[in-house]
Amino acid sequence: MMDQRVDLPPRQQITDLKQAAEHIRTARRILGMGCSGGGKSTLSLKIAKRFGLSYISLDRDVFWLPGWVVRDRVEQRNIIASRILEERWIMDGTNPSSLDIRLPRSDFVIWVRMPRLLCIWGAISRWAKWIGRTRPEMAPGCIEKVDLEFLRFIWTFEEKFAPRLVAGIAAHGPDVPVLQLKSRRQMRELLDLLGRPD
C-alpha cells in the first residue's frame, strides 16, 4: 500500500535543490523534521557542522530525561521557547504541538519525507548500529530501542502526523519555504550542493 500524502501548497514548496541549497547557506535558523528513521538527524547534524549552526535535538534537549522518562510538557515548551531565541541554529525534531513557536523564528524548513518502508529500515538499522548504547542526538541514558509501538508510529506517520505538520506549517509559517526530501538520492544531491564541512 502506498503512503497517502497530504501536501503543502505549491507556492511554499522549494523543489529545486540548487535553490534549496542557497536558502540553507543563508538561513540563520532551520527546522529539520520528518518521520523517525528517515535520516533527519543525520542530515541536521551535517548541516550544523557545515555552517557552524548550533544543533538542537528535541529528543535530547527537550523531550527525554535519562531512562526514557518524558519531561513535563510545560518544561518542554519553556526549553523550546528559550532555545528559539538563539541567533543561529538547526532544530532537529518534528513535534507538531510546538510549531506555533518554532516556525515564526525559522527561515527554512527541511522535511525529510521518506517512504515508510525506508523509515522502518532506517530505524532498525540504527538500532543495530547503536544496540546497548545511546546515540549522540538522544538524551543520556536513553539506550537505543525499537519496539512494536515505535514501528507502528513510523508505519502510520503519514496518515496521523503529516496532516498535523501541513496544518501547522500553514497556520504558523505560511511564508517559510519548505524543502521536502523524498529519497536518499535527493538527500545526497543536496549535501553535494552544500559542500563538505571546512
UniProtKB/TrEMBL annotation:
InterPro entries: Cytidylate_Kinase-2, P-loop_NTPase. Transmembrane segments: none annotated. SUPFAM superfamilies: P-loop containing nucleoside triphosphate hydrolases. Signal peptide: none annotated. PANTHER family: MODULATES DNA TOPOLOGY, YALI0E33011P. This is AAA family ATPase.
